[in-house]
Design goal:
This protein has 311 residues and is of the alpha/beta class. The protein has 11 helices and 11 strands. The strands form 3 sheets. Strands 3, 4, 5, 6, 9, 10 and 11 form a 7-stranded mixed beta sheet that branches. The N and C termini lie far apart (78 Å).
């Protein structure tokens, strides 16, 4: 049975290849040069290939075989470093895995920015992301299928949930440019609004069972996906409220029109982070909550700047 290279041998091999000499590698590793040379010789003997050429030069030069092996050595050392970092984090109470539930109304660009920064800050933490609407994010939290959730205010106070305000966003009613409500002259009264199909995001959980939010039309089409709702509104099939972050570009390009409806003015809403009262967030979850507090106000500032530019 062939002997396998040890991680220590691979670390020494990598140090010599990167430092360019046995003496420099010895200084980097805080070892005697003779120990470094002996380790490389043993590794070459085990693999039965020369990793460094030492003829005609004072410094070792990677052979063809050594160049081929170098990426594999780097990959294995990187795995070792990940293991060490994960163990160090666990010793300090860092979560090994974090499951978050996010409401569809949370601005997607903010979510992307936060998750990018999260990956840089906590590279060893595995992330699970569940996207839902309305009560789904609270239901997942209460059933312990998520560690923290992000979305709007709960429909009814629950002593098992703790909420932390992280920012604000807003919702506006929109329709396609050729929709009757978009072509109506002046503010549209409730009696007219009721006559046109309203597209509504529906909650498939029991958290808001029997409750409607901002529904005014006699006839509604209901769906669980806000992206599908946007596409149907773009097609002219109906009107509905959508987060302003989602439709700003559509309105600017003329694909959608912001409606002036008597019963449904643009509506600001508060965004919160939620966790269970009996399970305080760990270091990674706490960091994510604080990061949202930093990133969400940037969306509001950009919106205000956009409105001032138009005005």
């Amino acid at each position: 049975m062939q002997a396998n290279p040890t991680l220590d041998q691979l670390q020494v091999f990598l140090a010599v290849a990167e430092a360019g000499s046995f003496s420099a590698a010895a200084r980097r590793l805080n070892r005697a040069q003779s120990v470094v040379s002996y380790t490389i010789a043993n590794l070459e003997a085990q693999l039965e290939v020369k990793l460094f050429s030492r003829e005609g030069t004072r410094e070792p030069v990677l052979t063809t075989e050594g160049k081929v092996m170098l990426p594999d050595a780097r990959r294995m050392i990187a795995v070792l470093q990940d293991i060490r970092a994960r163990v160090d984090g666990l010793k300090q109470g860092l979560e090994a895995e974090l499951t978050i539930a996010v409401d569809v109304t949370l601005p997607l660009p903010v979510l992307v920015d936060v998750l990018k920064a999260f990956n840089d800050e906590f590279p060893t933490v595995t992330l699970r992301l569940n996207i839902g609407a309305l009560g789904i994010i609270w239901e997942q939290l209460l059933s312990r299928r998520s560690d923290i959730s992000f979305g709007g205010e709960v429909a009814a106070q629950d002593p098992d949930l703790v909420s932390v305000r992280i920012g604000d966003a807003s919702m506006s009613p929109v329709a396609a440019p050729d929709h009757p409500l978009a072509l109506y002259s002046g503010r549209v009264p409730l009696a007219v609004v009721r006559e046109h199909i309203q597209l509504v995001v529906s909650d498939i959980s029991d958290m808001t069972k029997g409750k409607d939010f901002g529904v005014f039309a006699y006839r509604t089409w209901r769906m669980t996906d806000v992206s599908t709702k946007r596409e149907l509104i773009l097609s002219g099939l109906g009107w509905g409220g959508l987060p302003e972050w989602m439709v700003d570009a559509d309105i600017a390009a003329g694909r959608l029109v912001a409606l002036d409806l008597e019963p449904y003015p643009p509506r600001p809403y508060t965004l919160h982070a939620f966790h269970r009262a009996d399970t305080p967030p760990g270091p990674a979850a706490s960091w994510m909550i604080e990061r949202f507090k930093v990133e969400l106000p940037k969306v509001c500032a950009a919106k205000l700047e956009q409105l001032n530019a138009r005005g």
